[in-house]
Design goal:
337 residues; mainly alpha; two-stranded antiparallel sheet; 13 helices
Length: 337
Amino acid sequence: MTVDPTLAYIWAFVIAFAVFMYVVMDGFDLGIGILFPAFGVGEERDQAMNAIAPVWDGNETWLVLGGGGLMAAFPLAFAILMPAMYPPIIAMLLGLVFRGVAFEFRWRDPRHRAFWDLAFTAGSVTAALAQGIVLGALLQGVHVTGRAYGGGWLDWLSPFSLLTGVGTVAAYALLGSCWLIFKTEGGTQAHAYRLARIAGVAAALAVVAVSVATLFIAGGDYQHRWLTFPNVLFAAQVPLLVGILSAAFWWALLRKKELLPFLLTLGLYLLCFAGLGISMFPYIVPGAVKVVDAASPANSQTFMLIGTAIMVPLILSYTAWSYWVFRGKVGESAGYH
């Protein structure tokens, strides 16, 4: 089997890009579901739903690309990580199913709308929490024996993975509130501003807690990556930029900006992804399997890359078009029915 390191790293970037797009684009959907009980029954909840109604199901395209790309481009990593993460991944998928069903039925079954609203929130919280737990379990390390997962059924469950899970819920809530600031008006927008301040504090505390806790797991490997010279000269730019964007975010909230808080939150997400890359690269299974070692044959990756090079621009084009068509503010009545 011939492996091309260049192709392997290109595919690592493609998968990272797909995961980032999913986190951003489905993140504000899940965030609105997490915040849903805080909105008033009736107009506020209907506006919140209408803010994501035209785009929510298309956002999950990126999850398929990320998961499918991992299986095809890095089959060894997929074979190790899936058994290690089965419970939270299954919980995530069930949460997404519940959320999708509830989204449809709350409009079509108004007699039981309170139940579907609860299911919408429960599915969103479950999916977000599970995604954060998977991230924490990946960072804390997976026990590998030979070329297979060698751990137990509950190795993914730890205080650190629960911390990353709660932090992900807070981060999604922040993104969802900022999206509602941009897409709604009146009382719903004012409520979204208040929720953004609360979620912003929670997300900031979570980022600090996860960042500090990360330095004390995986046998100190992350300390070496972040704190030793000359690595620290490059790595220190990430928390510095996080601080700058955070200050700009609070300024934008105080000045009642509408789009800027959402864009700054996206910037903070991007910096968190950069920090994740610093912590993991060149490993795809931290401390166990490197990107090159997990790659499929070069011929397979080349064939898939051709299809990806065609499909990703198409996905980006129709996604951009859908957001353009449904631009502007939403109302209580002009939306999903």
